[in-house]
Amino acid sequence: MIGLIPAAGIGKRMKPLSDEIPKPLLPVLNRPLIEYVIEWMKKAGIEEIFVAVNYRKEDFKKIKGVKLIEQKVLDGTVTAIKLVEKFVDDDFIVVWGDNFLRGKLNNLVESHKKNSATATIMLDRDVTSTGATVFIKNNRIYRIKERCSKKGGFSPAGAYAFSPEIFKYTNMVEKSESGEYEISDLLQILADMNKLDHVWLEGWRLNITTPVNLLRANLKFLNETGKNYFVGKNCDIDGEIENTIIGNDVVVKRSRIASSLIMDGVRIEDSLIENGIIRPNRIIKNSRITDSFAIL
């Protein structure tokens, strides 16, 4: 069974962080986000993993255990799915590269195989995330809507299982108003034909699309570990650190840092930083950052 991680996008909502680092390579407890996705896929029995890349594609070469495949045109996730058609001879799964999932994919794979489904979507009962909304009636999905203002429904958890039959329908998807071939439109085609199953996420997940999401994922995962802070390699820390993730090769002198993400190579002196993200290799001196959220 193979897996696909769509990771080609520019990550506009993640700017300015994505100017330097592709969104799937941004750190969660000092590991690239995509490494967690790969780990979850392998635990679910996925033997071969493809990553669809485009923006800063060279940066992905450091990721081990995957095969890179270029999505030359950034026109939606359906295009990314079509890239693996020539490699597919059995069921396969797709998990977003910006999806931080604290749960298992096994129930998705097992349910899909048991029901011999064309497509199975994992759903999250938490509807606070942005993106598509899925509506269910009588245990059957009848509507999938992007950027939906209607109340109710459930959120896709960013994980899907497909049979090879899916490629009969990918060319039926038309470009959306945003100029993309969106997976929600593909799923709607399947729902209309009663070919879309679903399972429920057991655990929690965060769709990491903005810097605030990235900080939230880091702090929530840090809290799950039971630690008050996380410090990387080769660091020199002289200060007060609370509820914070510190990257590698960081120097902190006479400073207090709370509820923040400090990325690799940063130097901080005589400063107070709360609720912020410091980008790689910045030098912060004599600063007081106590806003509700800040990026330096």
Query: What is the CATH topology classification name of the largest domain?
Result: Spore Coat Polysaccharide Biosynthesis Protein SpsA, Chain A
Total of helices: 5
Report the structural category: alpha/beta
Strand content: 25-35%
Distance between the termini: 42 Å
Q: Per the principal axes of the C-alpha atoms, what is the gross shape?
A: elongated
Q: How many beta-strand segments?
A: 24
Largest sheet: 7 strands, mixed
Average pLDDT level: 93
Residue ranges: pLDDT <50 for 5 or more in a row?
A: none
Trace the largest sheet across and list its strands: 5-4-1-6-11-8-12
Measured as a percent range, the helix fraction is 10-25%
User: What is the class of the largest domain in the CATH system?
Assistant: Alpha Beta
String of helices and strands = EEEHEEHEEHEEEEHEEHEEEEEEEEEEE
Rg over CA atoms: 20 Å
How many domains? The number is 2
CATH architecture of the largest domain: Alpha-Beta Complex
Q: What is the assigned CATH homologous superfamily of the largest domain?
A: Spore Coat Polysaccharide Biosynthesis Protein SpsA, Chain A
